[in-house]
Amino acid sequence: MENSEFLERIQQYAVRIGKAGDNELYGSGTLFFVSKRKKVCVLTAAHVVYSLIEKIEKKELEICLTCKDNKNNIHWITVNDSKKIYIHSKYKESNNKKEFFEDLALIDIPWESWMDEMKGFYFDSGNSGTEIQGYGFPQSLDEEKDRSLADVFSGIGCLNGIIESKSAGRMAVKYDVHAGGDIERNSIMEGYSGTGLFSLEEYGICYRGLVSCSRGDKAAGYTMWTTDAGKITELMKENNIEIECPESFELYGKLVAAEFPEYKKSSKRNWNTTIFELIKKQKITPKDFEVQTKSTFLCEGERRLCDEFWKGKLKELVVMHKTQEIACEDLLEPKIQLPPTCEGENVTLKFLCTEYNAEYIFGKMIEDGQFAKDGEYRNNMILLVNSPKGHDNYMVMISRADCREIMANIADASTCTEELSELTENILDEEQKNAEFDIIKGAMEKCNIAAFGSGRLMDVLTKDTVDKVKSKWNNFLSELWEV
């Protein structure tokens, strides 16, 4: 995507928030498509709309949201129901609204036909040094709307900045803005509150957060606090706004393709060929795997909105389909055929996306009764722990031998052997259990469980040919399943 297209796209997301009728400006927002042709919201700062809610309830005013479609036609949406405005609970609970923590709000608006052709974006917290841009409606440019042949979008302005640091759900951003005239810093920020901030990545447009307030005093220069994109998930959960799974794996295929080194052209070609087969011919979609987005294990975000979740899932599908030749209808919970060096038995592959440290996961499984009769996990299982590059879990490998040692250590540390025996009754099959299961003597060391991080999948996928991919995968399984 060229930079000019990026700027045009993020302008289309910009929303002017004002008073219906007389065009009084309150702030800025961003169109957010929750589910295609079903639900759309406007993201903005809580302090932009919080003080207006009581007036809306008393019928003293209506909010006008001014938007522009991809053909530059302007649309006006009136909000006259305060129940359509959702404020982050912690912002509402705060006694000092000027602190600007959890400064986030959603305005629920109806889907309109002009939105059908609009393209969405994805969410991700930005790291220090990330360049961001956004379009909002500063008070200093608002008078442009009153001039001849002008409209309210004539007062739109661009913010450019760099993320300096992150703290408590907020990002500190150093910005450069051209608002026209020599005006004070605080005046520049008026109207920009709620402006969405984006970065252009190789694989698409990423929403990093929204403008909240100035940071420090004037001596700090042009620096501001922004509300981190991760807070959006919290607000949606609070108000039962349901995110639907993405319609296609196509975006995630491109995201993973961007991870291949430039010189690995054959590997990337193999990847693109396989995902074309899965997506276009087999019609596999994220919706087929929605059940796996719900888990008792820790996740800092919403899995259905998480690129890392769907990237990891697609890597798994490609490896299972390409190397294991597993039929598409069996990909939800695939059975891996282990190589002859592992006695050729079948084991279940379980996909798990979590922030928990991989070694801690086993203890958590036992603690939550996940190996009990009604639990999700059983013996003869390989756990695929999905995580982003750089996370401790990304390249982790816990072989079957190491897992047995971990389980034995858990058993040794237990103070209630009878309870632990019940919680882990499915780690061993009936024959093993009757013959060998003695929690006191650490018989859980006989379990057949292993785990590895999703980065190991990328190691396999970067091989140049399908045969080399299969060979790498089988070699890895042999090492993983050793005792």
Question: Can you tag this structure with a few keywords?
Answer:
7-stranded antiparallel β-sheet; 19 strands; alpha+beta; 29% helix; 483 residues; 15 helices; 7-stranded mixed β-sheet
Describe the structure.
The protein is α+β, with helices and mostly antiparallel strands and 483 residues long. Helices cover 29% and strands 24% of the residues. It is built from 15 helices and 19 strands. It has helices at residues 3-13, 46-49, 53-57, 89-93, 185-189, 231-238, 250-257, 265-281, 307-323, 358-367, 400-413, 417-423, 430-436, 455-461, 466-480, and strands at 14-19, 25-35, 39-44, 63-68, 74-79, 85-87, 105-109, 122-123, 131-136, 157-167, 170-177, 196-201, 204-214, 223-228, 335-337, 346-353, 381-386, 397-398, 449-453. The strands form three sheets. The chain has a seven-stranded antiparallel β-sheet. It is elongated, with a radius of gyration of 26 Å. The relative contact order is 0.09.
Radius of gyration: 26 Å
Number of strands: 19
In DSSP terms (H or I, runs of 4 or more residues), the helix count works out at: 15
Q: Beta-sheet strand percentage? A: 15-25%
Silhouette = elongated
Main sheet summary: 7 strands, antiparallel
Question: Structural class of the secondary structure composition?
Answer: alpha+beta
Strand order of the largest sheet: 5-4-1-2-3-7-6
Helix share of residues? Answer: 25-40%
The average pLDDT value, as a whole number, equals 85
- Terminal Cα span: 49 Å
What low-confidence regions span 5 or more consecutive residues with pLDDT below 50? 434-442
